[in-house]
Each structure stands twice: as C-alpha cells, then as structure tokens.
Amino acid sequence: MMSNVWFTLSRLFAILHVVHYVTCTPESDSEETYNKYYNYAGLTRRLWSFVEKYPHICSLESVGKSAEGRELWVMRVTAHSERNEPGKPRFRYVGNMHGDEAVSRQVLVYLTEYLLTRYGTDPRVTELVNSTDIYIMPSMNPDGFEKATEGDCTGSSAARQNAKHVDLNRGFPDQFDQLPRVLEGDAPEVTAVMSWILHKKFVLSGNLHGGSVVASYPFDDSSSHIASGVYSHSPDDALFRYLAQTYAENHPIMKEGRPRCPYDPDEGFKDGITNGAAWYDVPGGMQDFSYLQGNCFEVTFELSCCKYPFASELHTEWKNNREALLTYMEKVHMGVNGYVMTSAGIGLPGANISVAGNNHNITTWIFGDYFRLLLPGTYNITASSSGYLPKTVNNVTVTEDKATLLNFILNTSSEKMQMPGFLASPVPSTAFTPTVRIFDNQGASTPEPLVHPQDIRHHSYLDMELFLQQINTVHSSITHLYSIGQSAQGRELYVMEISTNAGIDQPGKPEIVFVGNLHGSDAVGKEMLLILVEYLCSNYGSEALVTRLVNSTRVHILPSMNPDGYEMVFEGKINSGGVRYSSNQNTDLSKNFPDQSYGEDFVQPEKAAVMSWIKTHSFVLSASVLGGMIGVKYPNSVDSLDEDVFKLIAEACFVVSVKLVLLMSFQSIRPSSALVLGFGSRNTHFYSSGIDMQTWAYRNTGTLGFTIGLSCDLYPQAKDLLTYWKRYHVVLLQFIQQVHFSVRGRVTDVQSGQGIVNSTIVVEGSRHHVHTSKSGQYWRPLAPGAYKIQAFAPGAVVVPVRVLETQVEQVDIGLSPEPLAHSEGQLEGEEFQKLLEDLSSTSGLEQLVQSLLPGGMLHYRTYRERSDFLQELTLTFPQITRLYSLGHSWEFRTIWALEITGNLESPQPTEPKMRYVAGVHGNAAVGPELLLEFAFVLCINYGGNPTITKLVDRSRIVIVPCVNPDGRELAQEGKCFSTAGLTNAHGVDLDTDFLSGSLSVQPETRAMMDLIREGGFSLSVNLEGGSLLVTYPYDRTTQPAHNEETLKYLAVVYAGNHLGMHFGYPGCHIGPGRNENIQFPGGILRGAEFSNHSGSMKDYSMDVSLCPEITVYTGCCLYPPAEQLLSLWVEHRTSLFAMLLEVNKGLSGVVRDKEGQPVSDAVVRVNGSVLVHSDTQGYFHTLLPPGTHQLEIHAQGFQQQLWKVDQVVLAAASKRTRVKCYEHQLDK
C-alpha cells in the first residue's frame, strides 16, 4: 500500500517539476557533472537550457507525445538550425527506446553538450556541425524511464515497455509480417517516430540500447523467425558490417568482442559486431524499418551490460562511447551524393537512385539532393523519376576519404515539345511552352488523355481527407498536402499543391489557386477539384500537357472551403442551403468578404484562413469552381485595362470546348461584364450585391480572381460527375495555362544584383498592383497592347512594354538607390542626429510633447468601438497608416495591428522598427486607450509638426492595442483588482503561453508569436496594469540576460520620463500581495523579481527575435474610472515618445565583404554578447546604453573575428557605422 502511495506521490512530483521547470533555479545551466540521471522534467530543463545558450546552432522540437503525454524531445544541432539546407545530410541518434535502458539517455545529453560547447573551438566538431544536420532524441520512451529503477541491471517489462505495455522495438511494420504488430493508439511513440523518419529521410542513424556491448546490424529478423542463429542478409550487408565495426573499433570494450556480462559471461561477438537476426530474431524493429522504408542506414548499439547502472558509472560510459559516437556520425559523408535535377536546374524530390547489382534503392529529398552510402569501389549508378528519362553513369569511383559528387540531369520524354526561350529568366525554372492562348484543334478536342479517374463519387469530409492523404503518399514527388486553417467546427481546410518540388518556394514558377465548395450544398466544385487532383497526378509523366503544366506551375487546390456546410447536405438534394454553421449563423462564405483591407467585425474562420493564405502567396490567378452555372464570371468593378485581361482569359478557357460553343448564345449573355461566356438557369448565383472572393482579391492582393461554373446542378447524382468532368475538364487545364501569358520578370538592385522583395509593380491605367516575391520575381497578366510598367521602390523606373498575343514578355527591372546627392543626404542625416540630441536634452522632449496638438480621444472603448476608431484613423491618414489583422481570438475577434510610417509602400532597411503592445491581460484596461491616444497624436501632428514628421518618416511603428479582446470585453470599469478578463476566453493567462516549441498555444498567442518571429523589431513596449514600475527581461528565473545593461537602461528611460514612476514608490496598498511600503529603486525591476513566471511575451521576444521588450505597469488600478484616463495619459505620454527616440539611437551599420556585397545573417556581438543578426541587405541595428563598447562581427565562411571596434562611444543620440567583413579561408 505504501509503495503505491509513494509511486503516486513521485509521479505527482514529476508532473509538478514539468510544469514549473522554467521557474526553478536550473543546475542544468552549468557544465555536466556526469553523476546523475535526468528524469523527464530535468531532461526537459536541460535541453531548453542548451537552446537558450546556443540558439545559433541548435533548436528543440517535439515530434509527438508518449502514451502518458510526455513530449518526445529532439535536439537539432547544426549551423542554421532554423532552416533546411540542401546538400546537408541528416543524421539521427535515438536513445532510451526501452525505458529501463538508461545509459543511452544520458550519453546523448552528454554528446549534445559536447557538440555545442566545442563548436567554434574544436575543428573536428565545428566541421561536423557545419556540414551535418544532426538530430538527437535522448528518450523515445520517457514513460518507461519514469518507472525504471537506478541500479537495476536486468530491467523490468513495466519499464522496458511504454505505458500501454508495448515493446516499442517490436511495434514497427515488419517486412515479413504484413499484419499490424500493435493496436492503433497503443504505441503513439512508434507512430510519431515513423512519421518523423519518413518525413526527414535520414541518411544514417544509430539506435542506442543496453543489456550487452555489441553493434548489431540489419536485418533484425528473418522470414523463418527462428529465435536465433539465422543470418539475415540485407542488400548492403558489407556496408552495414563496415558501419557497425566503425563504432565497435572505437569503443574500448566493444572492440574486444567479449562483453563479459554477468548473465552470459561467455557470450562473444567477432570484432564486436553481429547480424541482428543471427543474435536473436526481432520482428517489428526500428532498424529494419528505417532501412526498408525510411531511406536510412541504421545500426543498433548496445552500450553496457547493466541496463540502468548507478550514476557513478555514467562518466565512464561517456568516455567509452564518445569517440565511437563521433566517428560513426562522420560516416554520413561517405559514398556518393549530389542532386537529381531537371534540364532547367530544378531539383526532383522523390527520384530513385539505384546501384547496379544492389536491389536497395534510395530516393532524393525535397531539394532533389541525395546521399547514397557506399564502400570504396567502382559503381554504375542510375537516377530515375516518373515522367523523366532515366540516366546512368558508369564507373563511378568511390573513395574512403569523402563522398564522390555525382549530379544527374534528367530530361522529360515531352521536352522536345517545348519552345526554347519561354521562361528563360535568370532564375532557374522548368520550361513551359504555350503557343497560343487557346489549344489548337488537335490539342483541344481529342485524343483523350491516358488516364481518366473512374471511381468518381461524392466524398464526405473523412472520405476527402483519406483520398487526399492517399494521393499525397502515392504521388509524393509532385504533391504537398497542407492545411491553411480550420472551419468553425474544427475541420481542416486542406490544400493540395501539385508541382515538382511541391511545398518549396520556387523562383521561376507562377502560382495558381482553385477553391471549391464555398456553398455547403455545392458538390460540383468540390468533386471536380478532387478529380483534378487525381487527374494531374495520374497523368504526370505520360500526358504531355499535364506534364508541362506540373513542371512549370505551382497549382494549389482547396477542394472544400466549407466542409461543415457540406456535411449537412445529402446526395441529390439540389439547391439546398447547406451553409449553416454550428453556431447557427447562416453565413454564405462566397460573399460578404471585407470591403476594405481592414476587414469586418466578425470574420468567419474559413474566410480568415483563405484571406491570409492568398495574401501570403504570390498567386497570379485564382478561380472558384462551382455548380449552379456554366461559364466564367469575373468582378464587376475593374479597371478597363484589367477588364480586357479578364475577358481574354475567360474566352480562352471556354472557346476550347466545341460543345460549349454550340450550346452558348454569345450575344444574349454579354450585357453584364460580370458574366462572360456563361449561362445558367438560376441567376441567383450571379451575385449583384456584397463582395465576393474574386472582388476582394482584385482589390487587396495581386491575384486576378474568376468564378468557373461547370454544371447547372449544385449536387448532381454521383453517376453524372464523370460526364461533367469529361465535358469541361479542359476548361480547368486551359485556365492553368493562362497563368503563363503574363508579363514577368525580376526586380533587382543594380548594385548587388539581389532581388528586391515586395516591390510594387504598377501598370499605368490600372489600380491593380502586384508585388515581387522573395526572389524579386513578379507576374502580371496583360492583354496584347503597349503598356508602361513601373517598379515602385527606391530608385523606381518606368519601363515601356509591348505585349504580343502569342509571346510572353520578360521584363527585368534594375533599381538603383534614389538619386540623393551624397552631401544632401549626409546633411539630412546630421540634422536628424542633431534633432535627437536636442530632444534628449533635459527639457527637449517635454517641450515637444507640450507643443503637440492634443488628441482628446480618451475614453474606454468596446471591441466594436476600438475597431471603428482604427478603421477611421486609417481612412483619415491613409498616407502613413496601414491596418491589418494578426489573427483572431477564441471568440473570433480580430487582433488588430496598426502600422504608422512615412514609407508605407517602400520600407527602408535602415528605418528602425518599434512595437507597442497592450491588452495581453484584458482586465488591464488603461494600456489599450493610451496606445490609441498615442497613435492619434502621431497622426494628427504628422505634416504639421516637423519633429513628429521626421520621427514618423524615419521609423516604422507597429501598435497592437489589444492582444486579448475577449478578456477586455469581460473586464469591468472601476474594478481595480478584479481578475475578470485577465485570461482569454479559453481561461489561459496569455503571458504564460509564449513557450517556444509548444504545439498548443492559444490563437491570440500565435498571432503575437508570428508578429515577433517576423523579426526586424529593435524595441518593444508592453503596457500592463496593477502597479507602477517598469520590468525588464527575464520574467523567468534564469541567469541575467547578456544585454542586461541595455535592458536596464531602457527601463530607466521610460521610468525617468514618467512623472512619478522614477521615485520607486508605487503605493499600491490595496489588492492581493500589495504592500504600500514596498520600494523599487528608480521604478524598475527585473521581471522575475516582480512576478516570476515562464512563458511571458517579453522573454519570448528576447529569445526568438533578440528584441528587447520592457513591461510598463501603468498604475495600481487595473481598470480605473474613465475620468482618470487623461491624467494617466499626461503621466505616460513623454515616456511613450521617449521610447520612439530610443529606437532611433543605438548602433547600426552594414556588414559587407571585401567585394562590397552585403553579408546576411552575420552575428553582431557587443561586449561579447550576441545581440543581433544582419538582414538580407547586411544591415543591423541594436540598442545600447551610452558608453564605450566593443563590437565584433562573425559570419559563416569568413574569418571568425571579422572586425573589432575597440572604442565605440555612444552619447545620447545614435551612432552609425559601416563594417566591412573580409573573407578568410578557414582551416578544416
């Protein structure tokens, strides 16, 4: 009985440690002592401490959860760990698969620390981390480990297995046994790791166990499943023996081949290695699964005879395994590697790499890169991919020292059909050749394509989900399935992207989107798009047009935008409603899109997801596919120039169908420009009121949107769907082809040659603008004619263009800096510096504040009133304001962000970015009103007050007045210490929810995380309530921040400009935990000393974006009476403006190489602390207190200490410097 009580208490104690691990004083921040085991909480704490200390070379993620809900942590160690890099092989170590085998768990933590602490000083470790993508999972069975007992050498089944009594190394699919080995849901650890293995396509792996000392290689079982003694050869048996021996010969005990384990002291293994099945049969093991299905060569290493030795043995075990672990990892670079590419230089993911005489193939990864481990020798190697002609290279020589580079370029069987020169841009792309805007007679009518889907039926949501997942699995080389959000009832909004290298941003490929099922009762659009998905995938590589379209276009297909409505409709129930939400609101998703960029009060989650999706992609064309009409529709209100384009595309799509031409009466259907070449029996679907998705897209994005109707019925019988498909599928294919009849090009900086992102492309005579992509590319559909095109960016130029009917124009635009005379620009800069100095004087800022036009807009606002105010502000001051949505709260209220700057359309890299935030806690009601007043004062004084005008012109100010609008609606005026509204509608304190790597953050938190992660902010101020002081990072208990001096300085600036805060006596004598006699010297305090908690927004801002954030507690009362707002504004206004001054100070510069080219992602260290990274233009900006500082610049590929400024003296104003970085060849 007592043992059960103790077990329960120990479990509870472990859970409490997990919850509070961040707030405890972490021993784990220090160096390893090698004398203790980490339980789950300790392991979590230790891994996060690595991320905090070495964020530039490591990251932590969970690949899933155990049966009892513990995270399956994976530490990624590599240079640039935040992104996937082509040409870098992926290596994996997995430990503690059996919970009672504990040595591996600790050894992998030690290995992680070894790699991190020696990076940059140990050449071997530095080379390994730079060239390898290393993934380390210390514990695959954290539940089992919690049940294991230290000192138990033989282990127990309860600890060996997971919490549902499954041996995880018997739970993987087996090559000789087709039946599932475990019940679904009994081994979530296996499911998670399988998904991880299949997604990452590791090259080499080690699985660490305990109970003996030997290296065991595939296969682990045989077809006979005889218990032991059967040698089960793999096709790479010699290679596996070599890999196993690599580890064994570097382990002092393993290499002897005599473990001398107490349970079998006479057991021996020649050279310390064994074939798995010859030792003992293991069906369902991870090792064989990795090799046969995961693209990965894996060996199992048994590290010690005792499964869970006393902690005093850990240091010895680490020394025994350290060299073996490192040497084995280095073998990931042996054999042959390279890329499989198209003739245009685009990588082919999923291509097969085969070696003559070996029937085990591997496949390329997402970039088309591959890594085929081979022993030294001479080989004939073949690359092949569906739709391409295979290519074989004979007599490839492989040496032992390093991998042989071998690239393949594959040609398509239809490549001879492509016209040379099309899409011949400097950006690599796959060629596509349209000849005219419509198919010729041969191509349009018949012959039929090789494959038409036959099993056509209506799909429920679950049927559709399974169908898309199966297509994504079968055609993984050209598909990417993702979700853009969820419906009101929580169903995923699935999108299938079809293209070579799907899921990867690909310069040179235009993007197009199809959306179906906007009405729940409209099955035609949904089913036609599902058929289109299967049609494109099934005919790729065999049908010429489909192959060319997929090779040259990124096609995104959203079959169902309204899955909730669809589930309410039954087959044959034509023209029913089916658009109802679970909230019983009849909402038609096809219209009522927001009429302005700032949106409407309530945006349905489906609409919000689609709007965000379209805005974040560079879609050239979009189409809603539906029933209830036959024809093509485009927006009513478009410029005449664009109407020509809309008509041309619409006609090109429907003229191709001879049947349609015979059925239509062209003259009778053209009176309305909203309906082109279409007819239908129900004109109710030709909406004349409200704004549909196409109109919204035309006004607010770079997309031209159409509606394509393919049936008079909304929900036809399933047997009729194939008829509709065969009759009209050519319309959809032709629509895809139209995306290539565009003026396209690239906007570049003429000095650096780099593409300019988000440059605005303006065609004279049209209000519809498009923007350049990340690589500077753009596509602009135009009808034949002559045009003037302007790239709107610093140094904008006008380019005359003539578009021919059958030829696509390539118009590349080079921009140089604005023609500002050097002396004039220098003078302006000096004047601004003088302005900052004057404002920083004793009374300079106060005089400015008192001279400003007052806002006088102070009162408490509801969510609706706040939204209206922001919208009116942007309408009144459109030249300097932009209002946009960061996301939505639990109750679907918009989280607004207001941007104020003098350079809305052409952001400058040298302008600092400032963030003001309030309303994280809804009951802190003062902050939102102060920020709205602050925004209003900035706007009404812009243009009239020269100082405010210069500050706004030289800054980019982002104001988020209320992060928690749901909580704010619940708070009550006059309630100084009420907790009503403190949390969001889901009961979560948002300032504890900013946890990196968490998969379950609140929607409000996610919105702010996305804003913070986008980077570029130099300073952030968060307004709270309940006291009178400023706190600076960190809120959690940890070692002081590297730049604590700067953080303190910023807090002092705010408190010092407040009328009373700097005295340090809040005087908050009412409320829980208040003490009227408490003193905060200078009115500032480190966050953890005031309110110790983890998951705060300021800590997240520091950790993720290196942006300093201070929290301002505006007063003792959380929600004072409205008549107090004016006095609070007077107290805080100077401080708010002081922060705007500070963001324009500090140290900034440009990092360049000796050729004058900007160096991106350089690490700027001040006084030995990592503070900031340079952006894509080499620009950096960091805030510093006045004084003398040392500056160092580090960048990969350059000498480690690039430049050192021993004396950087910063006064009250800013100091700008230009730093040159000289390339240096590092010794390997």
TrEMBL record:
Note the InterPro entries from the entry.
CarboxyPept-like_regulatory, CARBOXYPEPT_ZN_1, CARBOXYPEPT_ZN_2, Peptidase_M14, Peptidase_M14_domain
Which residues catalyse the reaction? E302 (proton donor/acceptor)
Q: Which GO terms describe its cellular component?
A: extracellular space
Q: Which GO terms describe its molecular function?
A: metallocarboxypeptidase activity; zinc ion binding
Keyword Cell membrane assigned: no
Q: What are its cofactors?
A: Zn(2+)
Keywords in alphabetical order = Carboxypeptidase, Glycoprotein, Hydrolase, Metal-binding, Metalloprotease, Protease, Signal, Zinc
The biological processes this protein is annotated with in GO are: peptide metabolic process; protein processing
Identify the Gene3D superfamilies for this entry. Answer: Carboxypeptidase-like, regulatory domain, Zn peptidases
The record's listing under Pfam families reads: CarboxypepD_reg, Peptidase_M14
Keyword ATP-binding included in the entry's annotation: no
Look up the signal peptide feature and give its range. 1-24
Ranges for domain Peptidase M14 = 36-332, 457-739, 859-1143
Q: What is this protein called?
A: Peptidase M14 domain-containing protein
